[in-house]
Amino acid sequence: MTRGAAAWFLVTTFNFGFGHAFLVVYFIGIFAAPLLTGFALWPSRSVPRWLAILFLVGLEVAQQGTSAGPSSSSCSCCPFAAAMGLLAARIWQAAALPASHTLEPAR
């Protein structure tokens, strides 16, 4: 199969409404998911407010910085990496706390 025939096959076979709708929802989700997560972290009080802001801004900068090249994209990912490390530390601290001091089984 030639390259042109393969390209024609892919374009004609996978050109349907559900695929376009899925693609649109996917790309909206790329930008909406960090916003929703940042806005959910803000009122939860499970993390400091500055960490919720760092998560939101750091992820958006990391997503937009990847098109600038490998050297600048690695620098733009540092705030998000720091936010994820701090969030992971918070989760481990919360998981280390005992849920109950009784030895009775739950009913």
3D architecture notes:
It contains five helices and no strands. It is an all-alpha fold. It has one domain (3-96). The termini are far apart. The model has no long low-confidence stretch (mean pLDDT 80).
* Spans of at least 5 consecutive residues with low confidence: none
Q: Looking at the chains present, what oligomeric state does this protein adopt? A: single chain
> For the terminal residues, how far apart are their CA atoms?
64 Å
Order of helices and strands: HHHHH
Q: What class do helices, strands and sheet pairing give?
A: mainly alpha
Shape: elongated
The largest sheet, given as strand count, sense and whether it forms a barrel, is:
none
Our estimate of the beta-strand percent is under 5%
**How many H/I helices?**
5
Helix content: over 70%
Q: What is the average of the pLDDT values?
A: 80
The domain tally reads: 1
How many strand segments?
0
**What Rg, in angstroms, do the CA atoms define?**
22 Å
